[in-house]
Amino acid sequence: MKKYYTYTGILSIILLILCGKLFAESIILEEIIVKGEREVQQKECLEGKEIRETPARDVGEALKVIEGINSVRKGAIANDIVLRGFSRDNINVFIDGMRIYGACPNRMDPNSFHIDFAEIEKISVLKGPFDVKNPGSLGGLVEIKTTRPKKGWGGSINVFAGSYENINTSFNSSYSDDKVDVLFGYAYRYSLPYKDGDGDRITELYPASSPNRYKDGEEDDKAYSINTFWSKFGFNLLANHRLEIGCARQEADDIIYPYLLMDAVYDNTDRLNVKYEIPDISNRIKKLKAQFYCNQVKHDMTDERRVSSEGFTSGYMMRCYAEAKTFGGKLESDIAVHSGRLTVGIDYYLRNWDAENTSPAGTQKMMPDVDLNNIGAFCEYNRPLKKNLKLTIGARVDQSRSKANDDRSDLYNLYYGTRDREETDSYAGGNIQLTYRLVKNIELFAGLGHVTRPPGPDERYIAMEKPSSSPNWVGNPELDPVKNREFDIGVKYNIGSRVYGKATFYYSDIKDFITVCNITGPVKDARSFKNVDATLYGGEVSFNAFLPFDFTFESGLSYTWGRDDTSDKPLSEISPLTGRISIKYDIEKYFIDVESIFADDQHRTDSDLNEEKTSGWAIMNFKVGTRYNKLNVFAGIHNIFDKQYVEHLSYQRDPFRTGIKVPEIGRNFYMNIAYEW
Ligand SMILES: [Cu+2]
Question: What's the pLDDT at 629?
Fold first, then answer.
């Protein structure tokens, strides 16, 4: 304990000396004002710089500063995004408009895992079913935008070091002129397993008798090691055409997932994204955009780091090798119509998912090479109705076809009496949104949206015969697409340029929501998926103020309530009331930020799935930083009081979950130095 206080003291002294010596410019104050103005516009945006200034290890964790976003933890990294109770395929997560899916049937590698922080310029979050430009944004859309080269030569270098040998270094270099631009980047991340508030490593959570515990020597071996390389090429052709080609490769190795029965041996991703854009073709046609992308993820996981693998000549008792490929394109045009803008477009994607599982019982295709094809068309019209009133209406139609190429229909037949391996769904949706500026600094908005998404390859076709008495996992080929009809209202305010914030509320009526369920079979029971009707409602409130003496106060609260109406019980995996308060002292030379994050207990659980209640918690974080010209240094202590806590989202659906919840990190220290040129 004493050691930590000594560290803290030394750290603060070093930083204060640095601050005193280095600074002259009042950049930080300006930044706050700009940030304040921007947040009034749209709180649901996170700049790359803000992300890199947190000790978060991935996008899922970093996005939690946005009200309404929570994440699912299964290990030290690769947290999965949950938006207002919508998770997995219920939300879209795109990288530069590119759809990407993880390969692991356990979601070890959620879509947001396949990009490094250092690639990111901005993340924007659209809450609710208000995106018609892409299929399936049922609960919302998370758009990750990557950086583009600045004019001339440029670059940056970033070095982050924290407790448990948590290292994150990145480097990028770019050049840009009127004709061409090019960017190269590289990032490396590494960490040992962290300790929770009780001082236990996350590899030491299992009882000594559990075969799922880590082998001797493995508890303190690496928690992950990730190399990411990326590049972007831009060509400004003809008069004002632009061709942009982005590619990236991520090699993630030895990633532990104490929550599950296995760990990832490797997870390799390749991404290619090509865009062609022509602005101002005529007075009427304002923009024409074409996009093509493809990506693939290869994922290998085994139990070789666990005791369960002992005695097997192969080195493992169980293994799962999985591949996900996504390929797609889009054509989109902006057209001036009356005083507004009409956007029309068509899009297509093919998602393929294949996974093979090996256990002492044999080898089986647990994801039977499933293709999901989707083709759709959309239009959105945006125009001011009056000086203070803006209208947006949108609509889209889709047809999607899913097909399991490998035959596991015996299993479907056993539980559902069907051998169907192919399904076609057609659907339509749309929205209407109004924004009204009441007075200069108060803006009201209201929206009504309807979005449908097809059942995922796993939800329809997963096929996993489990040994002994463990229930099988079987997809439900008869599932219907999920439909979300949602109403949102909100207010944004900015009073006297000193107080600003936002309040949003939503009510979501979901038809055929897909939930996990237990079903009985002739030989043994299984876990599967079923359609239920569900209701979700809740909201987010934020209140921020510039206080005297260069202090800034920020706060936010979010809440979601969910019910399975068909069975009249709480929906599983819903976060409790969550909030954040921070006070920042900011002068031209440095900033100090003290923050508290807290969550209420969650007692609304689905006992049929053995979902457990979670206690409330609160933690405190401290950060201090400084900036001199292009050098940016910050350091902090996360979870100062070493609080032991787990977040509620426990991911009930895994075929390979062990029942252990992974606690959040205990007290930890970090420091980051970034230099830009
Ligand atoms: Cu996996």
Answer: 84
- 78-112 per-position pLDDT tens digit: 999 999 999 999 999 999 999 999 999 999 999 99
Q: Which helix (H) or strand (E) holds 30?
A: helix 27-41
Q: How far is the CA of 475 from the centre of ligand 1 (A)?
A: 18
The 10s digit of each residue's pLDDT in 150-178 is 899 999 999 999 999 999 999 999 999 99
CA distances from 383 to 16, 104, 430, 435 (A): 51, 43, 16, 11
Distance of CA 521 to the CA centre of its chain: 36
CA of 355 to the centre of ligand 1 (A): 10
Query: Residue 111 C-alpha to ligand 1 middle, in angstroms?
Result: 13
Residue 319 to residue 264: CA distance in whole angstroms: 10
Distance 266 CA to ligand 1 centre (A): 9
Calculate how far, in angstroms, residue 257's C-alpha sits from the geometric centre of ligand 1: 9
For the chain, the structural domain boundaries read: 2-676
**φ and ψ of 410, to 5 deg:** -60, -40
The letter for the amino acid at 512 is D
∠ at Cα 234 (296, 378), nearest 5°? 65
Cα of 649 vs centre of ligand 1, distance in Å, is 19
Helix (H, G, I), strand (E, B) or coil at 146: strand
43 contacts 50 by C-beta, under 8 angstroms = no
Please give the distance, rounded to the nearest whole angstrom, from the Cα atom of residue 260 to the centre of ligand 1. 9
Domain 2-676 bears CATH identifier 2.40.170.20: yes
Kindly state the helix (H) or strand (E) to which residue 62 belongs, with its residue range.
helix 59-62
C-alpha 542/C-alpha 492 separation (Å) is 9
What gap in Å lies between CA 493 and CA 441, rounded to an integer?
Answer: 6
pLDDT tens-digit readout, 546-583: 998 889 999 999 999 999 999 999 999 999 999 999 99
Q: What is the pairing mode between strands 263-279 and 472-474?
A: unpaired
User: What pLDDT shows up at residue 28?
Assistant: 34
Tell me how far apart the alpha carbons of residues 121 and 137 are, in angstroms, rounded to a whole number: 22
> Which run of H or of E encompasses 40?
helix 27-41
Q: How does 96-108 read in b/e, with b if 16+ C-beta sit within 10 Å?
A: bbbbbbbbbbbbb
Q: For ligand 1, a single-atom ion, which residues have Cβ within 5 Å?
A: 104, 106, 108, 301
